[in-house]
Specification:
Length: about 475
């Protein structure tokens, strides 16, 4: 007997938005921003192919190979699309090096959805322009909803929002209709509430943060891809996945006013602008360490300009925004003696000391050989003072490093946002430099060939050439 089904207005708004966005123009600004996201993400992945989480992902892929599907970036194992969406996320998040967005309430790493976009596009033979459109669409949800929903309030992690962007992106590539979109969103959110226990900071058996943190974001994307394929085959989700008594909004403790504001936001979107609102990381540490690294490198350059090297440093003073001071110093158990990689890249004193000693920061800067290097240890054991600024900058992400040499001369590195962070643009030239640092000479066709594939992605017949260009020797 047919009856009237209960409504879920939030679910309806999401599906309606995805259909309405098909009419959005893919303008030059959106294409340029998408190109930056793709280039940055692939560079980060190729720089993390030796990470233990990435090696585990390849071992998993070897057990589930298929003839038709999508490939792992860099290594080329072919798996089904949902596995590719999951496994390519391991190197993307290995060193906390991909983009991020801090919204008014929540935050995310929106480029996580790229794993699902390229997986579905490759599996389905979709043209590059549609992959770019799907990526831009997904960003609208991940970035936009971060201003209205805070997953941490209810004990959940940011992939709760990433999943929504993944459904929008994968569903666009699969050309879902309104009812299929509704069921895809329903299946995905009902199946994926990622616990914020992944951010507990409790060390695992290796003394590091849980390896699952490297998969957590892309697991939300995997759920999204699976949900879209299920919905396209006629599988139906729960009736009220968002507004039901045990639904998504209740689990995340979203208030009625916040839910309504989010819906009004969706109704007001008229184009692809969110993809240009994210921030990039110039160096492989959290967003709170970027300004400190820039300042340390600038102070070191000023020292070098006087013909002195790091051995001449006798005192280091770091003046940090309260958010930087608390997160990278005050709450750390022993920031001057980091015993693991995770402890090192979350220690403000260590980040500064490594930058001063090496004159650079890369993924290797936090491994044992550098942590134990005499030049780094000397700076950490010397007169290093970490000072909490009396008030925060607008971003609460800034720090300044001031050096004093053995002759009493002082060298200040300035207190400014690093490229790509705290609302500062990441110039394409700087992004390409970061890309080349990550890629090195690993690529079969060379870095220039992959850069060219990214630049021409929106004009390509499909994305397979792009994925092929990521393969390493």
């Amino acid at each position: 007997m047919n009856g009237e089904f209960p409504s879920d207005r939030f679910l309806d708004r999401l599906a309606d938005f995805c259909l309405r966005a098909r009419a959005f123009e893919l303008d030059a600004g959106a294409r340029s921003a998408a190109g930056k996201v793709v280039l940055d993400s692939l560079g980060v992945v190729l720089g993390a192919l030796d990470h233990r989480a990435t090696r585990s992902a390849r071992r998993f892929a070897a057990r589930f190979g298929v003839e038709r599907g999508a490939r792992l970036w860099g290594s080329g194992e072919r798996v089904n699309a949902e596995h590719a969406a999951l496994l390519n996320g391991a190197p993307l998040r290995a060193y906390d090096y991909n983009d991020y967005y801090f919204g008014r309430l929540g935050g995310a790493h929106p480029s996580d959805i790229l794993t699902g976009v390229l997986a579905v596009a490759e599996a389905e033979g979709a043209p590059g322009r549609e992959a770019v459109r799907a990526l831009c669409l997904g960003y609208e949800l991940v970035v936009g909803l971060s201003d209205y929903i805070d997953p941490e309030r209810g004990g959940w992690d940011y992939p709760a929002l990433t999943t929504l962007g993944g459904v929008a992106a994968a569903g666009a590539l699969l050309e879902l209709d309104r009812e299929q979109f509704r069921h895809a969103f329903s299946i995905a959110v009902n199946a994926h509430y990622p616990s914020n226990e992944v951010e507990s900071s409790e060390p695992d058996a290796h003394g590091e943060l849980t390896m699952w943190k490297r998969f957590n974001g892309s697991d939300g994307v995997r759920q999204a891809v699976q949900a879209c394929y299920l919905a396209s085959a006629g599988v139906e989700g729960v009736v009220r996945p968002f507004e039901g008594r045990h639904g998504f909004l209740a689990k995340l403790q979203v208030t009625a006013d916040e839910a309504m504001a989010a819906q009004r936001h969706l109704d007001g979107i008229a184009g692809f602008g969110a993809i240009a609102r994210g921030s990039f990381k110039r160096w492989p540490v959290g967003s709170r360490g970027q300004s400190a690294i820039q300042s340390a490198l600038r102070a070191r350059a000023a020292l070098s300009a006087q013909g002195r090297d790091a051995a001449a440093i006798r005192k280091v003073e770091v003046r940090a925004d309260p958010g930087v001071y608390e997160h990278l110093y005050a709450i750390r158990s022993d920031p001057l003696q980091p015993r693991t990689r995770e402890a090192a890249d979350h220690s403000l004193p260590y980040i500064v000391a490594a930058a001063l000693a090496q004159g650079r920061i890369g993924p290797d800067s936090f491994e044992a050989p550098v942590r134990e290097a005499p030049a780094v240890r000397r700076l950490l054991d010397a007169d290093m003072e970490i000072v909490r600024a009396p008030s925060a900058s607008p971003s609460n992400l800034l720090a300044e490093v001031v050096l004093e040499d053995d002759a009493g001369r002082r060298y200040a590195g300035g207190c400014e946002p690093a490229p790509g962070s705290a609302g500062t643009d990441m110039p394409l030239e700087e992004l390409i430099e970061k890309f080349r640092e990550n890629v090195g000479d690993r690529l079969q066709g060379g870095a220039d060939a992959l850069i060219a594939c990214v630049e021409s992605l929106d004009a390509s017949a499909d994305v397979r050439a792009l994925v092929t260009a990521t393969l390493v020797h």
